[in-house]
From TrEMBL:
Pfam families reported in the protein's UniProt record: BolA (PF01722)
Name assigned to this protein: BolA family transcriptional regulator
Family from the record: Belongs to the BolA/IbaG family.
InterPro entries associated with the record: BolA, BolA-like_sf, BolA/IbaG_stress_morph_reg
């Protein structure tokens, strides 16, 4: 699965400020940043990312998926602590 295709799918379905997708078909890592995550639990955030990608997961185009989600404020704090 092409990382740019995943980014494109998520951009079309979700109102995200930034999306990073790395990896290959065996293991993908997605970092998604946007205000749509404000006040939403980590489980619900992951479900929001999974939903547009579910066909690729069930068709085994993506084998394993690691998701990290942040609001803009959380991302800024994360960058400072890195």
């Amino acid at each position: 699965m092409n990382n740019q295709k995943i980014i494109s799918i998520l951009n079309n379905k979700l109102n995200l400020e930034k999306i990073y997708a790395t990896g290959d078909n065996n293991h993908m890592e997605i970092i998604a940043i946007g205000e749509i995550f404000k006040g939403i639990s980590q489980v619900k955030r992951q479900q929001m990312i999974y939903a547009p990608l579910i066909n690729m997961i069930t068709e085994k185009k993506i084998h394993a998926l690691s998701i990290r989600t942040y609001t803009t404020e959380e991302w800024k704090k994360n960058e400072k602590s890195s």
